[in-house]
Here is the input.
Amino acid sequence: MSIKTKAFWDLRLVDVSWQEWGELLHVLLARQSASTTIIMTPNPEQIVLAARDEAFHDCLRAADYLLPDGQGLVWASGAAARLTGADTCLALLALAHKQNLKILLVGGRYQAPDGRLRVVANGQTYDLAYAPGYQQARQPTDQEEQAIRALIAHLRPEIVLVALGAPTQEQWLIDHRELLRQSRVRLAMAVGGSFDFLTGRLRRAPTLWQKFHLEWLYRLWQEPHRWRRQLALPVFVYKKITGQWRTIDQ
Ligand code: UDP
Here is the structure.
């Protein structure tokens, strides 16, 4: 389904308001389609990673929709709005609840022995199917892989959300595209740590921090081990200022 995009480097970022994006999600979920819509949510760190990791770069290029998640990317691309994975997860939970659609969350290392994860958001409790997926997502065992494939084929969720960290979750989506299509999954998205906020493992930055574009700093304060990843930010700004992210027309 076509939507306005902004070319950035050789990627096409969704270039619409939050409201328009919400309306598109509604349409994507309402229809039966021959293929699964794949959504990824790059931020500046991931763009820097894609510049040196060709496989990850290919994954981003293979997605149906790339959301500019991260103020730096909105700044660098001139996209209309910052569209975050966290807000999209909230919207998907609400839409799925309303339309009675099944959601499966893969990954995230949450405790859910009964295979169900309950999260509270916007005053509503959502109950979704949950599969931790892998002990080590970068080195899945055959047994883990068979179990996840069997679960998806059996459950036939309309929505699959993948929390395995970048670039593993993006590669997972591309590698499982055919299985998702065959299982009639309508929409699948890489969600990173979005559910860490919904399960209360992490606190989302207060609105004022978000307003001043300091969400990344708030997260760094809660997860200091992420400092190394933040080193990508100056690299991103440097490459942008020196014109290295020039738009490549396709
Ligand atoms: N995660 C996982 N398995 C892995 C790596 C990450 O389940 O091998 C989970 C992690 O627990 C977290 C989510 O994936 O809930 C996002 O991880 P990270 O913070 O690295 O990703 P980001 O939010 O930066 O995309």
Q: What stands out?
A: The chain has a mean pLDDT of 94. The CA atoms of residues 176 and 228 lie 30 Å apart. Residues 107-109, 137, 163-166, 168, 192-193, 196 surround uridine-5'-diphosphate (CB under 6 Å).
